[in-house]
Amino acid sequence: MNIINNNKITVGLILVAFFFGMWFSGGESSSQTGTHETHISENQVWTCSMHPTVQLPEPGQCPICFMDLIPLESESGGLNPYQISMSRDAMKLAQIETVPASMGIAELEIHLSGKVEYDESRIGNITAWVPGRLERMFVDYTGIAVNKGDHMMELYSPELYTAQEELIQARKLSNSNTGKSALGKKTIESTLQASREKLRLMGLLDSQIQEIESSNSPSNLITVYSPMSGVVIQKNGVEGAYVKTGTNIYTIADLSRVWVIFDAYESDLPWLAFGQKVTFSAEAIPGETFEGRVAFIDPVLDAKTRTVKVRMNVLNPNGIIKPGMFVHGTIHATLDGDGKAINPELANKWICPMHPEVIQDHKGECNVCGMDLVKSESMGIVHTPNHQHENLLIPASAVLKTGNRAIVYVKMPGDEPIFEGREIVLGSRVGDKYIVKSGLKEGELVVKKGNFKIDSAMQIAAKPSMMNPNGGPSGMGHNHGGMPSGQNQKIHAMEQFESTASFRKAQNLITDAYFIAEDALAKDNFKESKTALFALNIVLSATTTKSFDLSEKATKKWNEIRDQLIAQTNYAQHWKGIEESRKAFNGLSQSILLLEQSFGHESSESYYEIFCPMAFDNTGASWLSKEKDVNNPYFGASMLKCGEVKQEFKSSTKDK
């Protein structure tokens, strides 16, 4: 921990040396003038490299981290507050690179995971058309590939036997011409046709009917053939079993085309559109990449997974893509000038309302269901640019983001290297670029590398920067003139409550454990801090409010504070490192300060609220101390003296 924080200070000193020595270089050196005297200007301002908002009229040490202050150079040349100049040597040492903001097509890649499934439109069942008994099953296990017309099973059915006999007799009667009138011949022919149709409705093929018609006696068994090609994915019948009309015996799936279904999160929905190009791969098929297009986007969001099913139809003539495989896909989206997904390639196309994957260039009928095709625009599945197809794009590395603000540094025209901080409005991020909605113009040079160094120089110069939008000592940042906003904001005066002797005893135990933990953290002693805070949790858990005999309002306030303290120390025994202790100590300190504000303390000595603005990535944190001298529990030895007294709490105990 000490090494890490010392490294931070070292980096800060190096940056200061760089900016002070090279950034504002120019003019004559001391060797040229022949004098080595140091003159302090009356208007000279001194600042801290780690806390640039500290600005003092004379040299010395930073009141927060005790680093030596450095002179803050003033700039000339009519620069506005958002600009800073540097020498060419400094620009080269800082490795600053610029790139022009340019118009281009915004292409976004959406990475999804999915699964291969059967094409639901290519699944068929072989069912019993008549009741009977399964005498023999030629396909006797799942997974067998069959072709259309392959025999599947033999079925014995009394109804089929009777229907065969009727056809044979009708044929024999039709072949006999003796003593037949014209009406009789017509009746016999109608009977023959009805017998043929009856067998056809029982599932027999025309070839089977012709064979029966040419025979002299009916067959006991009828062979059932496959109506489609595919793979048997389900087998429900067994030999010798009786089946009823409609019983499902086999399920066959045609795997020459499969579905790949991806799960898209709702945050991805703005970038999805029908017809987008998709590439995917499967771990089971290494080295192969497959392509397709989005054929369907589920109109309903799954409430549990918060995802939407996105489907693509994939040809699979070789059968290497197998249902059940997991795949990783990339949807390639194109965005218009407003940052919305578009698919202009579908404009003026004709699509089937029931099968949108059927797309034609002209009016016609669907080759699947026969419905009339309609214009793609009428279905709302095609999106074209409202105006421009291109967007203003800049590299993502050029943007400094903090909260809702986005800052870029623009190199101003001219020979002199001058950079201006510019707050811009961003659109969507597309790969390694951002769409810029406003704040920049095409052709302006933005800094894509070295922008953090420029921002650091702006902070040192007390100018508006990423973390300090207003510049100067009153801006954001560490705010040494007052407490920062948020959970570490200074606790304002509040109602004081009377306490009792029993409550004071419990309060002393709580604050003693707190101070032990504070001292241990300042000494970087994790084990001792963990033990103290765990002990504090035990003390809190053992306290009983009834024994304190407090007023109703005081009891309510104490219960509120007690619940917070317990929650903040509840898992102390499970902490693995000192960072966990310090994080918990931060929240614990807010509750302890609230306890001190509400009930005071018994000791005759004063307590102090101390604030460190650098704790927790410059968020800042306070703590309660028995000593006025700063011993920082959030940094320990690495920055032990970082902090300042914000408030004094005098003893509230009165002699009775």
Overall pLDDT metric? 80
Coarse morphology: elongated
Report the strand count.
34
**Main sheet record:** 6 strands, antiparallel
Report the structural category: alpha+beta
Q: State the helix count.
A: 13
Keywords:
27% helix, OB fold (Dihydrolipoamide Acetyltransferase, E2P), 656 residues, 34 strands, elongated, disordered N terminus, six-stranded antiparallel barrel, alpha+beta, six-stranded antiparallel sheet
Structure, explained:
By secondary structure, this protein is of the alpha+beta class. The protein is built from 13 helices and 34 strands. Strands 4, 5, 26, 27, 28 and 31 form a 6-stranded antiparallel beta sheet that branches. It has a 6-stranded antiparallel barrel with strand order 7-16-19-18-17-20. Strand 22 (350-351) and strand 23 (359-360) form a beta hairpin. Helix 1 (2-23) crosses helix 8, helix 4 crosses helix 6 and helix 11 (552-569) runs antiparallel to helix 12 (578-599). The longest helix has 22 residues, at 2-23. The radius of gyration is 42 Å and the shape is elongated. Mean pLDDT is 80; it is low at 1-41 and 473-493.
In brief:
This protein is α+β, with helices and mostly antiparallel strands. The protein has 13 helices and 34 strands.
Blueprint of the fold:
Layout: H1 2-23, H2 30-33, E1 45-47, E2 55-56, E3 70-72, E4 83-85, H3 88-93, E5 97-100, E6 102-104, E7 106-118, E8 123-127, E9 132-137, E10 145-146, E11 151-156, H4 158-175, H5 182-201, H6 206-214, E12 221-225, E13 230-235, E14 242-243, E15 248-253, E16 257-265, E17 277-282, E18 290-297, E19 307-315, E20 326-335, E21 341-342, E22 350-351, E23 359-360, E24 374-375, H7 376-379, E25 391-395, E26 400-402, E27 405-411, E28 418-423, E29 425-430, E30 433-438, E31 445-449, H8 451-460, H9 501-522, H10 526-542, H11 552-569, H12 578-599, E32 607-612, H13 615-618, E33 621-625, E34 644-649
Antiparallel strand pairs: 1-2, 1-3, 4-28, 5-31, 6-25, 7-16, 7-20, 8-15, 9-11, 9-14, 10-13, 11-12, 13-15, 16-19, 17-18, 17-20, 18-19, 20-21, 22-23, 22-24, 25-30, 26-27, 27-28, 27-31, 29-30, 32-33, 32-34
Helix pairs in contact: 1-8, 4-5, 4-6, 9-10, 9-12, 10-11, 11-12
